[in-house]
Automatic annotation (TrEMBL), chains A, B:
<dbReference type="InterPro" id="IPR036388">
    <property type="entry name" value="WH-like_DNA-bd_sf"/>
</dbReference>
<dbReference type="InterPro" id="IPR018490">
    <property type="entry name" value="cNMP-bd_dom_sf"/>
</dbReference>
<feature type="domain" description="HTH crp-type">
    <location>
        <begin position="146"/>
        <end position="221"/>
    </location>
</feature>
<dbReference type="GO" id="GO:0003677">
    <property type="term" value="F:DNA binding"/>
</dbReference>
<dbReference type="InterPro" id="IPR050397">
    <property type="entry name" value="Env_Response_Regulators"/>
</dbReference>
<dbReference type="InterPro" id="IPR014710">
    <property type="entry name" value="RmlC-like_jellyroll"/>
</dbReference>
<keyword id="KW-0238">DNA-binding</keyword>
<keyword id="KW-0805">Transcription regulation</keyword>
<dbReference type="InterPro" id="IPR036390">
    <property type="entry name" value="WH_DNA-bd_sf"/>
</dbReference>
<protein>
    <submittedName>
        <fullName>Helix-turn-helix domain-containing protein</fullName>
    </submittedName>
</protein>
<dbReference type="Pfam" id="PF00027">
    <property type="entry name" value="cNMP_binding"/>
</dbReference>
<dbReference type="Pfam" id="PF13545">
    <property type="entry name" value="HTH_Crp_2"/>
</dbReference>
<dbReference type="InterPro" id="IPR000595">
    <property type="entry name" value="cNMP-bd_dom"/>
</dbReference>
<dbReference type="GO" id="GO:0005829">
    <property type="term" value="C:cytosol"/>
</dbReference>
<dbReference type="InterPro" id="IPR018335">
    <property type="entry name" value="Tscrpt_reg_HTH_Crp-type_CS"/>
</dbReference>
<dbReference type="InterPro" id="IPR012318">
    <property type="entry name" value="HTH_CRP"/>
</dbReference>
<feature type="domain" description="Cyclic nucleotide-binding">
    <location>
        <begin position="19"/>
        <end position="86"/>
    </location>
</feature>
DNA sequence: CGATTGTTTGATCTTACTCAAGTCTCGTGG
DNA sequence: CCACGAGACTTGAGTAAGATCAAACAATCG
C-alpha cells in the first residue's frame, strides 16, 4: 500500500518530518505501509536485505536469542521511532510486533540514497541513533547494579513515559505492552521475580494492578527511588 | 596544538578518513590535539559546551555514577573512535583516560557545520554511532543473563580483539587497560567476583596471568563458550 | 466448555555479594 | 638500596538476593 503522509499521525515527529514536501514525496514513493499483528516478525536476525522502517502506531521489540535459546529484549520501539541498521551487512536483531502495529517500510538502498540527497535527513537519523544509544546505555546502567525491584520500577516508569502523548508528563494509567516473560527478558530477571516485584510495588502502595496488563500509578515519585 | 593529519596514525580509520583533503584541512583548522594522562577527565557529565573528539592513541572509558556513588562503565573507546554527543544539550557521561592518550578535539559547532557541508561525514558518523549502539547492546545482552565467569570471559575476549591491530585476529598476549575494579564496574560484578573468575579461567587453562595486568590466551576458543 | 498460555505464590537452592584478612606491587623518601 | 606505605589484588567464610522447581490460579480462545 502506498504511503499517506498527509494523514500520518507521526508526520511531524518521525525522522521524515525534517524533509521538505518534495523530498518527502520522493521518499514516500519508494516506501510501503505495512500492518503487523501481535507476534508478527518485521525483520529476523541474519536477513541480508533487511529494510528499514518508521513506526506509525503500535509497539515493537528488538531482541536476540542467546545460545541457550533465551530471548533477550534489547529495546522497544514506540510510534515515530526508526527501525533498521543502515550499514550492517545483515540484520543483527529480530524485530517483532508487541501489539498490532502500522509502519512505513523503505528499502535500505532508497534510504541510503535519500541520506546523500538530504543532509538534514542524515542529521536527523544521527540524532535518533544517538538517542537510541543513550537509551541503551540507560538500560545497561540499570542492569548493572539495581535490585530486581528497582529494575522493574524503572521499566514501569519508562512505559508510563512512552504511554503518554505529551512529552512532559507520564501517563498515570496505562497498559503494559509486555508480558511478564518479556519484562523478565528485558531486565535480566525471571518471570517469577518480575511478578513478585510487581506484587511488592502494589503492596507498598506505589501502583495498582488492573487485571494482568493494566497499571495505575499511585505514587509515581517513589518509582524512581527504588534501589 | 594544531593537528598534524599527515602523520596521524589513524588517519585512514577515523571518521575523518571519508573527507577529501580540502574538507579535512578545513575541519583540522578548527581542531586541536590534546594529551591526557591516565585518570585525566576529557568531558564531565553535565558540561554544557562539551566538545567532540577522535581518539588517536590510548584508551578511554565512558562512565556514569549512580545515586550511591558507584561508577558504572558503559563503554570503552579505542584509537580511531569518535567521542561526543552532537545533539545532547549537555554531556550525559564522564569520559576519562584509562591510559595516557592523544586526541583531536573539535568544538561541537564546527563539527555540526562540517556535517552539513559533508554528507559523507554525516554518513560516517551515523555508521559509527550505529556500531556503538550494537556494542552497547552486546554488553546489555551480556549483563542480562550470563554468569560472572561468562561476562569476564567475554570482556577479555573484547580486549583481545581491541588490542590487536589487524581486524581479523585477536591478540594472544596483551595488557588489560582496566583495573579489577573497573572491570567489575563494567560488568555489574564486584571486584572479588572478577578476581575469582580470572583465577578460575587460569586454573582451567584458558589463560595465563602475567603480573596483574598481563593476559596470555592459551585457549581462546574456550573464552567464547563460558556460560 | 476444555485447553492452552500466562500469572501468582511458596519452598528450596545457588550464585555472587559482603565482610574480613592477608599478599603483591610500586612509588617515595630515608 | 632498602624500608615503608598506599593501592590494588587475592582468598576465605558466611549471607542474601534472586533462580529454580513446583503447584495452583486466572485469562483467553477455539
Amino acid at each position: 500500500m502506498n504511503l499517506a503522509c498527509e494523514t500520518c499521525p507521526v508526520r511531524d515527529r518521525a525522522a521524515c518530518a525534517v524533509l521538505n514536501d518534495g523530498a518527502r514525496d520522493d521518499l514516500a514513493r519508494s516506501g510501503r505501509t505495512r500492518k503487523l499483528r501481535r507476534g508478527d516478525i518485521l525483520f529476523s536476525r541474519g536477513e541480508e536485505d533487511a529494510a528499514c522502517a518508521m513506526l506509525v502506531s503500535g509497539a515493537l521489540k528488538i531482541a536476540t536469542f542467546d545460545t541457550e535459546g533465551n530471548e533477550h529484549i534489547l529495546a522497544l520501539v514506540h510510534p515515530s521511532g526508526f527501525i533498521g541498521e543502515l550499514f550492517a551487512p545483515f540484520a543483527t536483531y529480530d524485530v517483532v510486533a508487541l501489539t498490532d502495529s502500522e509502519l512505513c517500510v523503505f528499502p535500505r538502498s532508497e534510504m541510503l540514497q535519500a541520506l546523500d540527497e538530504n543532509p538534514k535527513l542524515a542529521k536527523a537519523l544521527l540524532r535518533r541513533t544517538e538517542e537510541e544509544l543513550r537509551r541503551s546505555r540507560k538500560l545497561l546502567e540499570l542492569s548493572g547494579r539495581s535490585s530486581a525491584i528497582g529494575r522493574v520500577a524503572s521499566l514501569i516508569r519508562g512505559m508510563a513515559d512512552a504511554a503518554s502523548k505529551t512529552s512532559c508528563h507520564m501517563a498515570q494509567k496505562f497498559d503494559l505492552p509486555l508480558t511478564r516473560g518479556e519484562m523478565a527478558n528485558m531486565l535480566g530477571l525471571t518471570i517469577e521475580t518480575v511478578s513478585r516485584s510487581l506484587t511488592r510495588l502494589e503492596r507498598e502502595g506505589i501502583l495498582r494492578r488492573n487485571g494482568v496488563r493494566g497499571i495505575e500509578l499511585i505514587d509515581p515519585a517513589q518509582l524512581g527511588l527504588m534501589g
